[in-house]
C-alpha cells in the first residue's frame, strides 16, 4: 500500500461530526454582528510579508517567530496571514472605504507557527471586527457589548473581562522609560526573550508567558499611572459605560497584548476552563495603524476571537446533525423512483432536511442506516406505496406505529410536532 500522507502538525480537519458546532458558532456570531450593523469583508489568505511586519511590529512573537513567510516563484516575499486586522486595514485603504465610519467583520483561518498544544494551533480560526473612523469610548463600549451579547447567544457564562489602557504614544514613551529602568534593576530575573526585548520592545516583556517572569511582571510600574488627561478620561468613560451596562470587568494594568499597533483601550475575555490558553477574545484600539499603513489618519478599534477555543467551551448538546427524514426504498421499482420522489419532497417542503438512501440493500439494512442517521422519521417507499401514491412514515426517536399517508399529506404530517422537536429546531426558534 502507498504511504499515507498526513495533515501538517497543528493544522486540523473539521470532521463532519464536528462541523455542526462550528456552524452553530458561526451562525450565531453572524446574527449578532448583523444586529449591530457590521458588514462582512473577505480578504486573501496571503499578503505581502511587509504588511504584517509594518503593522504587527518587527519585535513581536508573531513577526519574529511565528509567521509562515516565503518567497514565491516570482521572487515576492509573501506570508500566510497570522491575523486579520492588517489585511482589513490594507483593504480599507486600498478601496477607499475610510471616508466615513465603517463597521466591518471577518472570519477565517489564520496561520502562526507556534508550538501546537491545547488551544494553540498552527492553523486556527478567528472571527473579528474592525470599526474605522470613530475615536470615542462609546464605540469601544459598543464593541465590548457586542461580545457580551455573543457570549449570551452561545450560552457561555463563564468568561471574565480584563481591561487596560495603553495611553497614547507620548504616554507610552514615558512609561517605557520607567519600565526599562525597573527591568534593568531586575535584569537577573529576565528570561532570554525578555532580556532581548528590554531594549527593543520593553512593553512586550509584560506579555511574556514565561512562568518565572510573572512575579517581576506583577511588580512592574503600572501604565495607568502614566496616562494623561485625555487618555484617562477616555478610559474612565469606558469603565463607567461598562458599569452602567452591567458588564463586570477587572482592570489589569499589565495587559499589553501581543501586537504593537494598539493604543488606549485594550481588553481580553478570559476563561479558566481551558487551561493555559484561556484568552478567547482580544482586542482594542489602534488609532495609528491606518496612517502607519499609508492611509489618512483614521481611528479604529476591533477584536478577534479564537474560534477553536470557543468551540471547546460550547455545550456538547447545543447542536444536532440529524436530518428530518430518511427515505428508505424497498424493491427495484421503488429504488428507481426514490431520488425523484426526494426531489419532489424537497420542492414542496423548502425547509426539509431529507436524506435519501443510496446504494440499495435490504429493508432491514436500510432501516438501520435510517436510525443511525439521527433522522426523526423514516419514510418508507415500497411497491404498494408506489401504486397507491402513499408513503410509510415511521418515527425513529420514539416508539410508534408506522402510518401510511398520501404523499400530498406528508408536509402537514412532518410539520406536526408529534415527534420531539430536534435541538436544532429549538435553537432556530430562540434565535438571538
Ligand atoms: P496568545 O496570548 O494566546 O498567544 P495572542 O495575543 O497571540 O494570544 P491574538 O493575536 O490577540 O492572540 O488573537 C486573538 C485570539 O485568537 C486569541 O485570544 C486566541 O483566542 C486566538 N488565538 C491566537 N493564537 C492562536 C493559536 N495559535 N491557536 C488558536 N487560537 C489562537
Ligand atoms: Mg500569540
From TrEMBL:
Q: Give the enzyme class.
A: ligase
Residues annotated for L-histidine binding in this entry: 83-85, 112, 126, 130, 257, 261-262
Q: What cellular-component terms does GO give this entry?
A: cytoplasm
Q: Write down the superkingdom of origin.
A: Bacteria
- Keyword set for this entry? Aminoacyl-tRNA synthetase, ATP-binding, Cytoplasm, Ligase, Nucleotide-binding, Protein biosynthesis
Subcellular location field: Cytoplasm
EC numbers: 6.1.1.21
List the Pfam families.
HGTP_anticodon, tRNA-synt_His
* Coiled-coil region list: none
| Domain Aminoacyl-transfer RNA synthetases class-II family profile, first and last residues per copy | 1-314
Recorded catalytic activity of this chain's protein:
tRNA(His) + L-histidine + ATP = L-histidyl-tRNA(His) + AMP + diphosphate + H(+)
Q: Which SUPFAM superfamilies match?
A: Class II aaRS ABD-related (SSF52954), Class II aaRS and biotin synthetases (SSF55681)
Q: Name one GO molecular function term.
A: histidine-tRNA ligase activity
**Which terms under GO biological process does the entry name?**
histidyl-tRNA aminoacylation
List the PANTHER family hit by this protein, alphabetically: HISTIDINE--TRNA LIGASE, MITOCHONDRIAL-RELATED, HISTIDYL-TRNA SYNTHETASE
Q: How is the quaternary structure described? A: Homodimer.
Family assignment from sequence similarity: Belongs to the class-II aminoacyl-tRNA synthetase family.
Return the protein name. Histidine--tRNA ligase
Origin organism is Thiohalocapsa marina
Point out the gene that encodes the protein.
hisS
